[in-house]
Amino acid sequence: MIYIYVSILGAFFLLLVLSQREEEKGVFRKMAAYVLRRKQEIGQRFAGKKRGWKKELWRRRLGDKLKTLQPGLTVPKQVKEYYLSQYSMVLMVVCLGDLICLAVWISAHSNPLLMEGNYLRRNPYGEGEVPVELMAQMEGTHKEMFDYLVEERKYTQEEIQILYEQAVKLLPEVILGENTGLDDVRQDMELVTSLEGYPFEIGWESSLYSLVNTDGAVENEELTESEIVTLTANFRYEEWSFDHQLYVQINPVIYSAEEALRNRMNELIAKQEEDTKNEEMMVLPGQIDNCPVIWTEVIEDGSGYFLALVLMAAGVLYWGHGKELDQKLEQRRRELLLDYPEIVNKLALYMGAGMTIRNAFLKMGEDYKKQKKNQKRYVYEEILIACNELQGGRSETEAYDHFGRRCQVQAYLKLSALLSQNLRKGSNDLLQMLRQEADNAFAQRKALAKKLGEEAGTKLLLPMMMMLCIVMVIIIIPAYFSFML
After folding, report:
1. How far apart are CA 482 and CA 475, in angstroms?
2. Cβ atoms of 288 and 272 closer than 8 Å
3. Which residues, including other chains, have CB under 8 Å from residue 207's CB and lie 6 or more apart?
């Protein structure tokens, strides 16, 4: 995995060097600008006509969406800024995630226990056992995996009498391993050297070492009938010691060749453990039955899974950034619908006071400019654009038509058509139609507000259910414990 992490980091370094001439500010924006520029160059050089047409159609749709949200900016500039934002975000996530993965890998591999091929480093006195996962590979055989505990360097062993009786009751169940009972032992036993929660050092003796070794290994490959073995557990703490005997019935079992080889390895490892328990290093057997053994330590750093999560997060963020644009468009549409009754009512009010449609639009634009610092509204931004078109010499009919098409909402298209038709054909009923449209718009706004309220109530169902579960847990748990007492 380290090669992948370093390769990704090297790619970012190369990208950093190549992007220095870009005009954007910020490291990741420079990288994003370089990637975007190179992507466009390669796309123009190698893309087919069909693929280029589809890509151009997508860019046009994206440009239309962005232009709808910010009509004051040019489409190419908005499209470029959109892609720069997406690319820089993805590059930043992947770069930071790769650095974290590299740090996790270095942390996992910085302190290995296996040294010089077959030496296991022990903990100093009093720091406890060290778990290690080993892989043994012999010539002509498959790899064998071992989960092993390297004991610490030991002081003089001592025991406590107060907890002895409790420990003795737990011992028969603990040493069974995968066996069903002490009267039916067919697999290796777990002759533990300590019990969790008890400060004892436990040593083992066997009446028949040929059947049961002190590490719990059961050598019953050649056994033809059941045999009773006496195991003696010696509990020690400081100056006190006590022997406790257990009677174990060993039943015959047939092992496969691979299991026999594994048992042989376990036996030799246990022997090396016993021979070197007072030394700083434990020497693993270099060969088994005249066959050399190559030991390697299996280290699980978990950084590869984290890199996968980082890449998934980058993809989700990229996808979410695209969805955010559609959410903004939907928010704009709802805002336009909510503001529609106010716009129609103002037009009817100003025209009822004697203003022309042109002057009514200019009046609404001027009023919005004075209040623009407080809150930005999409419909008034479109009105400002229409006012600029009117003041720039464009005809009223075209300005109102453009106003309706930019809003992209059916209600405003209807309003612009009504105003344009009045200018073309002339009508004395425009004021009356605007007042009627205002009444209809207010009714539609009430329906929309009711719909939004229902949607908000639906979204609150999940938090309310979670709060209900929490309240039920708070009530039930104390009642349960009081009932148990």
Report:
1. 11
2. no
3. 229, 230, 231, 232
Q: How far apart are CA 160 and CA 32, in angstroms?
A: 68
Return the number of other C-beta atoms located less than 10 Å from residue 103's C-beta: 12
Q: What is the pTM of this model?
A: 0.49
The secondary structure of residue 111, as a DSSP letter, is S
- 3 state SS of 70: coil
**Could you report the per-residue pLDDT of 24-55, keeping only the tens digit for each?**
888 888 888 888 888 878 777 765 544 555 66
> In terms of Cα–Cα distance, which of 409, 435, 434, 440 is closest to 419?
434
110 CB-near residues (< 8 Å, 6+ apart): none
Alpha helices (H) in 110-209, listed in sequence order: 164-174
| 3-class SS of residue 260 | helix
pLDDT digits (tens, 9 = 90+) for 370-391: 887 667 888 888 888 889 888 8
Give me 297's structure tokens: 């330590």
CA nearest to 257, candidates 374, 144, 158, 396: 144
For the four alpha carbons of 435, 362, 410 and 397, in that order, the dihedral sign comes to positive
Strand order across the beta sheet in which 130-138 lies: 144-150, 130-138, 291-297, 287-288
Provide the residue count of the chain. Answer: 485
Strand-pairing partners, residue 135, are 145, 296
For residue 473, pLDDT over 60 is answered with yes
**Amino acid identity, residue 170?**
L
Cβ atoms of 199 and 160 closer than 8 Å: yes
Distance CA 201, CA 437 (A): 92
Token pair belonging to 456: 């908000």
CB 284 within 8 A of CB 119: yes
3-state helix, strand, coil in the chain (%, to 5): 60, 15, 30
- Cα 361 to chain centroid distance, Å, stands at 52
Mean pLDDT calculated for residue range 301-307: 82
The closest alpha carbon to 229, from 240, 242, 220, 238, belongs to 220
Pairing of strands 119-121, 114-115: antiparallel
